[in-house]
Design goal:
By secondary structure, this protein is mainly alpha-helical. The protein has nine helices and two strands. The radius of gyration is 20 Å and the shape is elongated. The termini are far apart.
Amino acid sequence: MCNTKRKIADGLLEMLHEKPLRKITVQDIMDCKDMKRQSFYYHFQDIYGVIEWMCNEDFLKLVTYKEEEEFDEWFCRVISIIKEKRFFLRKVLENIDRERMIERIYPVVEPQVKQRIIRERSQNDMVIRFTARSICHFILDCVAMRKGPEEADIIDAVQSIGALLQPVGGTIFVISTPKTTLRA
């Protein structure tokens, strides 16, 4: 990891404690860290580039799932990371479009849904997208909360989601429509 990028990111984080993002300038960040302005532009195009880098390094890389991890364990880890980095993540959510945030989180969540929840029960891309996007929205809702959900509540919710996605009695219901066949 580039030490200069981290230093710039830390400067932005310090400045976020002092003023809103829209009032922070590149010069403010660089003055905060006693660095030259040219160093900023060597590493980033603008302040939003720093935010994106921080989201990748300080959130997305941390929440990427591990093969040996169960879905509820992963979800609890995600919530724990959110609690730890709540200040920064809330600032990002205040200044970045929610849909853009979902676009960044989705590639981390979708494989988790495919591997851990859906498995072989459904190859329906719409079900996978719906479930993954719902989880992304829930993650952002947790960021927006003053205090995130407790681990026991998360485990209960994840188990309920898994139960909802289980076919009843192992049977997949097929509903015929004039144009296509829908699976429920």
